[in-house]
Request: fold
Amino acid sequence: MRFLDVFSGIGGFRMGLENSGHECIGHIERDTHALKSYKAIYDIKENEYEGKDITEIEDFTELRGGVRAAYRRIPVSII
Reply:
């Protein structure tokens, strides 16, 4: 399967999918710190898509996106 890693963060889902034999055709991440880590972790191919406009991409099987950690904060009360 060919996949586009959307809202990629530092690439946790990419690692799992690639370790399962799937091919990443590109990634999209707007957070500059996460993107810097992503690029340090993965060997980005020359023809791999990197950007913000997914309408430019063709020929992928699955669109995968994660939920940013900032949106998953749960208020905690200590009693």
